[in-house]
């Protein structure tokens, strides 16, 4: 799966920094607190794409994510493939999730990630009309399907290059299953990326440093 780039947004080579963005999908869940503890220990900020019904279940975790200066994005209300629902249903999924986040934080997200990375031009335009920027990834950890920490670490080491957005999961529903391997592997993954000279950024920071906007 490749990073989704809006028309008019051009990649820029970054010769000074090797940037990396850690992103977590399908949360929040009780695993999110463990991940936040690890990130806090390294003073690293990440981006969390949250599911609306999980926001309603764990508002205190959403508050913690925000308090610790991570970024929150919209990942729909209950994680459908957005290509299998109508535009009206997609709009409802997004708006309902934004409202749930706003109820907790008094602000709405500006980022959206489609479940399963499934998106087409029609849904992209709808998402954009609702004021959200679509974000995918270019490093898929497949942590939801990997049962060994060493295998997860190996996959990320193999696929990660400068200016990568890494997909991980903190949620344990919607097909993700238990996140024990993700939690166990995360310190080793971070240690490796630090050793390789990567600078950790959130998605808004990634966009700021890696892209320029041109009016076409």
Structure characterization notes:
The chain has 216 residues and is α/β, with parallel strands linked by helices. It has 8 helices and 10 strands. Strands 2, 3, 4, 7, 8 and 9 form a 6-stranded parallel beta sheet that branches. Strands 1-10 form a two-stranded antiparallel ribbon. It has a two-stranded parallel sheet with strand order 5-6. It starts with 8 loop residues before the first strand and ends with a strand.
Give the secondary structure arrangement, pairings included.
Layout: E1 9-11, E2 18-27, H1 30-42, E3 47-50, H2 52-57, H3 59-67, E4 71-74, H4 87-105, E5 111-112, H5 121-129, E6 133-134, E7 139-140, H6 149-159, E8 164-169, H7 180-195, E9 198-200, H8 203-210, E10 211-213
Parallel strand pairs: 2-3, 2-8, 2-9, 3-4, 5-6, 7-8
Antiparallel strand pairs: 1-10
């Amino acid at each position: 799966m490749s990073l989704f780039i809006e028309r008019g947004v051009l990649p820029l080579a970054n010769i000074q920094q090797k940037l990396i963005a850690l992103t977590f999908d399908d949360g929040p869940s009780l695993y999110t607190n463990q991940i936040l503890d690890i990130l806090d220990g390294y003073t690293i900020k990440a981006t969390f794409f949250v599911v609306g019904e999980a926001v309603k279940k764990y508002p205190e975790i959403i508050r913690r994510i925000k308090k610790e200066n991570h970024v929150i994005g919209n990942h729909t209300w209950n994680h459908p493939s957005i290509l299998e629902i109508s535009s009206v249903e997609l709009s409802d999924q997004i708006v309902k999730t934004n409202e749930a986040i706003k109820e907790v934080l008094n602000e709405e997200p500006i980022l959206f990630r489609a479940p399963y990375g499934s998106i087409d031009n029609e849904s992209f335009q709808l998402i954009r009309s609702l004021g959200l920027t679509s974000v995918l990834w270019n490093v898929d950890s497949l942590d939801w399907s990997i049962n060994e920490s060493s295998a997860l670490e190996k996959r990320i080491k193999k696929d990660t290059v400068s200016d990568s957005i890494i997909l991980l999961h903190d949620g344990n529903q919607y097909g993700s299953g238990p996140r024990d391997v993700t939690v166990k592997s995360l310190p080793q993954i971070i240690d490796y990326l630090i050793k390789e000279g990567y600078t950790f950024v959130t998605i808004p920071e990634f966009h700021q440093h890696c892209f320029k906007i041109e009016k076409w």
